[in-house]
Amino acid sequence: xxxxxxxxxxxxxxxxxxxxxxxxxxxxxxxxxxxxxxxxxxxxxxxxxxxxxxxxxxxxxxxxxxxxxxxxxxxxxxxxxxxxxxxxx
Amino acid sequence: xxxxxxxxxxxxxxxxxxxxxxxxxxxxxxxxxxxxxxxxxxxxxxxxxxxxxxxxxxxxxxxxxxxxxxxxxxxxxxxxxxxxxxxxxxxxxxxxxxxxxxxxxxxxxxxxxxxxxxxxxxxxxxxxxxxxxxxxxxxxxxxxxxxxxxxxxxxxxxxxxxxxxxxxxxxxxxxxxxxxxxxxxxxxxxxxxxxx
Lengths: 89, 196
Description:
The structure holds 2 protein chains of 2 kinds. By secondary structure, chain A is α+β, with helices and mostly antiparallel strands. Chain A is 18% helix and 34% strand. Chain A has a single domain, classed as Roll (Ubiquitin-like (UB roll)), CATH 3.10.20. The radius of gyration of chain A is 12 Å and the shape is globular. The N and C termini of chain A lie far apart (48 Å).
């Protein structure tokens, strides 16, 4: 049994509007594949299914695609849901 | 010889740049010409996200150097239309401090590629009305080619990599349409937004 940890999920842009909040703390295994982590998050709000093909993670502040890549998490880590940037200019 | 020639008449000259973070470097700088006889001048990367109105004058002043003959600027402004719809304003949000770190990486990349002196990247957050600046990038260099190419690289890379998102507010029924994230509100892919 992989030990679990408490991580902070950060929502922005469209995903924040769907989820209705900007952040939440969830309990996840310390070792988890990125895609599995997304599935855990998606269970929080079915509307997030609409954006799963548009988003990647930033963990911690490094871009990670939703693949089988294994993530090693620690309590307090930030998991940001990142949509394609649309900054000024 | 300076290539800087801009009109800032439409910008509020009273705008003060708050001292609050995230200002990466101390913004204190010598007036142009004062340190002309100094042997060295430390290069600066000045990165700021602010909800206050941006001033082209202030940002360009930050990169002035007596060692440079060129200051190149990019100013991104809110356009009054998008796909035939009238835009009232844009609203920007960012994942700070990752956005700041990503901009810092871009500054570092620029210094690997071009001999530039100072780099300033200011991005406004929150509501940005039509015609006002959402981003100002200023780069100084000894000769124009370096700063011109660096500014172009900076805005292209910034738009691709820095976690900042905009929401467009149209005047249609006075209801905000959302283009952030999936862009499902009017079925607009992000790629279109990138082709500003």
